[in-house]
Amino acid sequence: MVQGHRGQHPRHHPGGLRRPASTRSGAASAPDAPPCNKAEIVDLAPILASDSGPGLWKVTHGDHVLWILGTLSPLPRDADWLSREVENAVAQAQEVIEAPSYEIEPNVSIFGKLFLLPAAMRARRNPDGAQLRDVVPAAEYARWRRLKARHLGSDRGVERYRPIFAAGTLYKEALEDAGLTRPSPAWCASPGRAACG
């Protein structure tokens, strides 16, 4: 049995808007608004509001209960989640299973890790001193240059990175510039997850 909590939305009229009751009953509708002049459009300050949080679903089978927490990423860094329901579900859980991820943790001392650092730094660079312009198609490199100028500025070191590492660096900075974060704020609000970010 699956019970939905939050995240269930009323049926919407095609186009994403619900029709007012007056138009459903056959009453005359208001005339269309005049087209907006582009010069009148201004950027407004962001509005922060509390949200009830992501969907939380309860799945039961006999005496077993599974809570499924729906998450999205990236999300606004300053999102204010009302996460009491999530915190309660996690606090009562015997086990919490995170989204798939990986982490490399070498089995060496702190001094051993210090010796591995230069090798790790070299591994993210292109072999033979190649630059990004040498290893990616010209059209993609032109697009990279525009995005790099916008989010990374004059950082020349990233030009020596392998494409996957350069893309990761750009993605991280673009999220930062847009005020977004990768970890789910709801997950970070759960017990034992105070330090996300």
TrEMBL record:
A Pfam family cross-referenced in the UniProt record is TraB_PrgY_gumN
Location of the region described as Disordered in the Swiss-Prot/TrEMBL record: 1-35
- Give the organism, scientific name: Marilutibacter maris
According to the UniProt entry, which residue ranges have a biased composition of type Basic residues?
1-16
Q: Which InterPro entries match?
A: TraB/PrgY/GumN_fam
Q: What is this protein called?
A: Uncharacterized protein
